[in-house]
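Issue 218. Parser rejects a valid record. Input:
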Amino acid sequence: MAGLTFDPYSYNFGSLRRTIHSKKGMVACTHPLAAEAGLRMLWKGGNAIDACVAMAMILPLVEPAATTYGSDNFAIFWTKDKLHGMSSSGWSPAKLTEEYVKSKGYTAMPRSGWDSTTIPGCVRGWVNLVEKFGKLTLADVAQPAIEYAEEGHPMTPYVVGSFDKRLGMISPLISDEQIENFRKVWYKHGKAPAPGQLCHFPEMGRFLREVVETNGESVYSGKIAQAIVDLSKKTGGLWEMEDFENFDSIFHDPLRVNYRGVEVCELPPNGQGIVALMALNILKGFEFGEYDFGTPRTLHLQMEALKLAFADGKRYIADQEYMTQVTCDDLLNEKYAEERRALIDMNKAQDFKAGDPTASDTVYFAAADTDGNMISMIQSCYTPFGSGVVVPEYGLALQSRCASFTIEDGHPNNAGPHKRPYQTIIPAFLMKDGKPLGPFGLMGGYMQPQGHTQVVMNMVDFHMNPQNALDAPRFCWSAGLNFDLEDHFNPAVIDALVRKGHQISTHNAYTADYCDRPFGRGQIILLTDENTLIGGTEGRGDGAIYCR
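Output the parser choked on:
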């Protein structure tokens, strides 16, 4: 199937979910109401791109901690017999200079407040995708989101778990006025919504109607941009109207690595997708059998490869304009992968440093249609509810992407003016022999390239179908030798990893609070050899797949 060999009987992780099959189109998303909006676009005559943008527009309403209308978005998509990539990543204000940062005395960039904010990139991304590649109008794809904003929708228990915890985290870091603006939008009755409570967000409906009426220009040169600047001047931000001029998405060719005959495709920096590709480049030098999932050897090699890839990623990834030390080709060079692979000690966990290759809170969603269009898309405000800075009349919470900048003289990702920071959100796509297999992705900050690596190996090396590949227990590296593992790995395997020096903490991702889940949530849609679709969705949240 799909150029991959799946064995449906090899692994059973106890999930109640089953792999879904369809012929006429499929949408997969983190939330059922958003997935339903995408399906409506397919029934309306739209294509996969229209469906994904409809999901992107509704998700800030139904999962406001994971994405807001102040977010960025990225996409990899197959249409018109070509694979395309789009990065709609906002930049910092012109006044965010290194001198300004030093004057504030920051030891790290703040995760809340005005100095963490960047331009909202997502609206420009929606408009570009619909205009250049969709079949419907922006008004068509926005209609489900406007309906839910104005008519209301029920909150799920998973989403409700994010509210009070995040407000408690940001309250010490933002002003009383900003806290009040936050409460005006999400605490309409003086407290967080309860599970099942019908929630209305008329401010967000106003935002969406303004976006439709101006084809998105209001966010970059009109009323919405002016509202951001006015609030910024009033409450201590750096934004000026000039900062919004000439902002646009970037279209580029995805990066690719051949992993055992399957091309794994990621967007180039400023995103961290190249970390997954570097890890797979290292891992393809080792053999793995179909039944090797979750063994001490497999996990040790995966963990060490990802630490090696992250060591380089955190040293070199930045806005491409500032990546002057190395190129993507340098980092993906086969000879360099061999050098990094040779550093792995099979018996010992290590804390790796960056090499020298020149010496030689997020939502993910996907869609496919009957015309062969397929899209992998992701959207995020970085930390839950973003920066905590809210423009109340539009229900617009600005993202906190400047928190991804470093404060280190000479570092390519150092904070600076009109600069795009290191991006954690990354869509992915699989190809084989020049033909599309389909979109996949997994959200969760620095978990994302780790999740991509694990999911690809689950399908390619261990022959899991898409649903099993998502259900399989995961691990997540945090720093040094520290890893979080889901607690349904074999305890004997965990003991073996500890003896190698890995520092392990175990968690249950199915019962933890919303903000304590380090293992991400994913979706997969693949094209089979029968020209049908097969998909999997996430059981660690509210994931849903709908089909035509």
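Fixed in the parser; the record now loads. Residues 296-316 form the longest helix (21 residues).
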